[in-house]
Amino acid sequence: MLRGLYGAAAGMIAQQQRQEMLTNNLANANTPGYKADQASLRAFPNMLIKAMDTQGPKGASAPIIGELATGVYLQERMPNFRQGDINETGNSTDIALLQGVLPEGESGRPGALFYTIQSNDEILYSRNGNFTIDGAGFLTTTEGQYVLGTNGESLQVGDENFTLDPNGTITSSDGAVIGQINVAYAEDPMLLVKEGDGLLRYTEEGELPTAIGNAEINYQLQQGFIERSNVDASQTMTEMMNAYRSFEANQRILQAYDQSLDKAVNEVGRLG
């Protein structure tokens, strides 16, 4: 009976974690460049049950009664790097990164492209192209981190009257070429983890290689557009309701076991 308690409790914990993940996705449905987290429920390995103090025919080992499920858990959360919808804003500092069909890496998953962002002394990555210009004229994220160019330096665009071609080359209002926005390529995007504020950190040593000059990678930058979140709000709401109902079902099972234990302790024990 206690094992049933453990299984129901494991199901409740897994559904609570799933609900928290879906709630976070829904809260970021309007965050530019946000990539929805995804995960699935997996079962712990089943256990074989054998009869105790019992031998099979001619001294054989105890007979196997059957399998016992040991509960479920929420598999590791992973971002879905599918391209989000593109929305026109008309703001010169909004830049959408449109990636074409990218080659598959050794993991069998297609790669992904990112902006290179300098946050303090750390190099991070982002798909959020909702940029702005700081007081010194540098192109930055809305949180103040510098957007880096191909030479690894920050880009001083001066004011909002700059222009950007599809390759990411920036030209100032007086016609001077300022630099080119770097686009980094992740062969296996699952090696990136979320750091908050739309930023991701590469978990391996070094930095992601640039996609510029790679003939196998097709992309373009669109000025005056923004990539929206790839969260499907209606689907997420449906999954949240399913998670809630599953949580309630496990909760009722847990209550039934609790009532059975209460009877066993307070009624059956008194009859004895």
UniProtKB/TrEMBL annotation:
Origin superkingdom: Bacteria
Keyword Secreted: no
Subcellular localization, as worded in the UniProt entry: Bacterial flagellum basal body
Residues covered by the Flagellar basal body rod protein N-terminal domain: 5-35
A cellular-component GO term for this protein: bacterial-type flagellum basal body
Domain (Flagellar basal-body/hook protein C-terminal) ranges: 222-266
PANTHER family xref list: FLAGELLAR BASAL-BODY ROD PROTEIN FLGG (PTHR30435:SF19), FLAGELLAR PROTEIN (PTHR30435)
Family indicated by similarity: Belongs to the flagella basal body rod proteins family.
Name of the protein this chain belongs to: Flagellar basal-body rod protein
